[in-house]
Design a protein that fits this description.
six-stranded parallel β-sheet; Rossmann fold
């Protein structure tokens, strides 16, 4: 058997195995499109845990990597870690309009400040934003985990006004219909008065969402200021 024939035979076998694998994965009726963005490797362990949980829940994972992820070490490291964990995925960087699946959802892990802000403001100039708006337009579930600096329990020393703005963007995503894992629920819009005792139930540096018609007592405002709590108030009804 000459070397050229052997090489062709190996290529044929590999192509056949890859096709069988693709068909096996696609046979699963539940598809989760996962768009991984950024270049922060510290977010990868939490992302991998979520992907494993989705796999165990019966989802076929179809991964796409943003430009920043594919041009950094994140893509190669992620795919290698998935292989080591035994998580089987399909990897394609298709645009959302190319989706042919029926039962699918969208997962945006470790969503960056940049992409979260753009989605909240209706900007669609990157892969993450295009996928987010396409899924929402198709009434598909959109699951988001936030980048560390965007979470309400972040240790990043942002000014209270900036933390409030980021929290407001997260609230807008929830109003769009996105599910944000780990995001605190807002104070009930039925609550008309926020008191000192209400504020003391929240840790220092927390972000508190309140209804548009909620009034804040002077003592509660002093406590909010002294403990660096950010207030996000909905528009008045």
């Amino acid at each position: 058997m000459d070397q050229h024939y052997l090489s062709q035979l190996l290529d044929t076998i590999i192509d056949d195995l890859l096709m069988r694998r693709k068909k096996r994965l696609q046979a699963n009726s539940k598809i989760m499109h996962v768009i991984i963005s950024g270049d922060d490797l510290t977010t990868l362990p939490a992302t991998l845990d979520c992907l494993m949980a989705l796999t165990h829940s019966g989802y076929c994972l179809r991964l796409a990597f943003s430009c920043s992820a594919s041009h950094s070490a994140l893509q190669a490291t992620c795919l290698d870690a998935l292989t080591q964990r035994g998580i089987d995925v399909l990897c394609d960087n298709c645009e959302p309009g190319a989706v042919t699946d029926n039962d699918w959802g969208l997962y945006l892990p470790a969503l960056s400040t940049n992409s979260m802000s753009k989605i909240a403001l209706g900007i669609r100039d990157n892969l993450v934003c295009r996928w987010a708006f396409y899924a929402l337009a198709q009434n598909k579930p959109v699951i988001v985990t936030l980048n560390a600096e965007c979470r309400h329990d972040s240790t990043t020393h942002f000014a209270p006004a900036l933390r409030a703005r980021l929290a407001n963007y997260a609230a807008i995503l929830m109003e769009y219909g996105c599910t944000i894992i780990g995001q605190p629920a807002p104070v009930s819009p039925e609550k008309r008065l926020l008191t000192l005792s209400d504020v003391r139930q929240h840790p220092s540096g927390d972000t508190l969402h309140i209804g548009g018609n909620t009034l804040i007592t002077p003592a509660a405002r002093d406590e909010i200021r002294d403990r660096g709590i950010a207030i996000v108030q909905r528009l008045k009804e």
